[in-house]
Amino acid sequence: xxxxxxxxxxxxxxxxxxxxxxxxxxxxxxxxxxxxxxxxxxxxxxxxxxxxxxxxxxxxxxxxxxxxxxxxxxxxxxxxxxxxxxxxxxxxxxxxxxxxxxxxxxxxxxxxxxxxxxxxxxxxxxxxxxxxxxxxxxxxxxxxxxxxxxxxxxxxxxxxxxxxxxxxxxxxxxxxxxxxxxxxxxxxxxxxxxxxxxxxxxxxxxxxxxxxxxxxx
Length: 217
Fold this sequence. Notes:
There is one protein chain. By secondary structure, the chain is α/β, with parallel strands linked by helices. The chain has a domain of 120 residues: Glutaredoxin. Helices cover 34% and strands 12% of the residues. Strands 1-3-2-4-5 form a five-stranded mixed β-sheet, with helices on one face. The protein is elongated.
């Protein structure tokens, strides 16, 4: 995962699920019992990306048992970019679940709260409670479908694949190089301090008795 730019890596607040082997274990009872949403009237199944002013808690209902898969990403992380088309296709594979994504650099308080400072990080919520963390290093549509099935018992639609439209959005699959404002501010502050210290030193040197005579001689 991509490390944070300005925050230390925090310990996860909930354990990662153990790797689920194939075979008889896949028939186990689901760990999370999700209330599947009514899909009637929904024509397009897609994920919602939170903007900087939207709070994740506004989209999670603490009084329900519906499940939401939430991705914490950053647009400058290449792992987030490579995951994007696979995550974009998930809502079509699981139309009865909800899918959200948020830029972790814009929601630092949430990243700290849920221990998702390193990205990409995927949490399965039931209501407003995080229930499981996706822990596979191979982040593909197939491993994501297996994770959801192992946690909820909900099977993915078999005809869903990563399509060309999934590479276009809504989650960006192209890296964006934003300005690191903290680094820029630090450089400017340091430069200003050096200039101030230099000028200050020159002023003090000329005020010291005897210094000006040396120059006159």
